[in-house]
């Protein structure tokens, strides 16, 4: 489980309310600066975040475990715990309790109540 909150330098004015859905994809595949959102080239900070995120994804694809040397430990998902890896707005990863869990749990229960199976 993760939350991607990193805002690339060129989008900080535009994305004042947070990162849109899917914004991590160019970072996961190390293609930041390419794709459907043209703009200024990525900064060295953007490139460093892309290398880090891509390393997590590549490790997971290769071994089933995103962790590796030099990376912040990504906690294994445990439904009984409330831990995620957050890629913070400054690009740093931190293992932390999910501050949105209660809100997301309420939303999930409301969706289940509206669409019972």
Descriptive overview:
The protein has 117 residues and is α+β, with helices and mostly antiparallel strands. Helix content is 32%, strand content 11%. The chain starts with a strand and ends with a helix.
Q: Top keywords for this entry?
A:
about 10% strand; three-stranded mixed beta sheet; globular; alpha+beta; about 120 residues; single chain
Strand-helix topology:
Blueprint: E1 2-4, H1 25-28, H2 44-63, E2 83-87, E3 93-97, H3 101-114
Parallel strand pairs: 1-2
Antiparallel strand pairs: 2-3
Rounded to the nearest angstrom, the radius of gyration is 16 Å
Sheet/helix structural class: alpha+beta
Order of helices and strands: EHHEEH
Number of alpha- plus pi-helical segments: 3
What global shape is seen? globular
Largest sheet, in brief, is:
3 strands, mixed
Helix content percent band: 25-40%
């Amino acid at each position: 489980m993760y939350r991607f909150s990193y805002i690339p330098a060129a989008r900080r004015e535009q994305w004042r309310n947070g990162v849109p859905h899917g914004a991590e994809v160019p970072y996961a595949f190390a293609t930041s600066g390419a794709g459907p959102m043209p703009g200024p080239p990525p900064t060295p900070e953007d490139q460093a975040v892309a290398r880090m995120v891509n390393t997590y994804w590549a490790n997971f694809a290769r071994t089933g475990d995103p962790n590796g040397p030099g990376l912040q430990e990504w906690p294994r998902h445990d439904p009984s715990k409330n831990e995620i890896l957050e890629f913070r707005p400054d690009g740093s990863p931190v293992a932390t309790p999910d501050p949105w869990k209660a809100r997301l749990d309420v939303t999930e229960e409301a969706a289940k109540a509206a669409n019972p199976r």
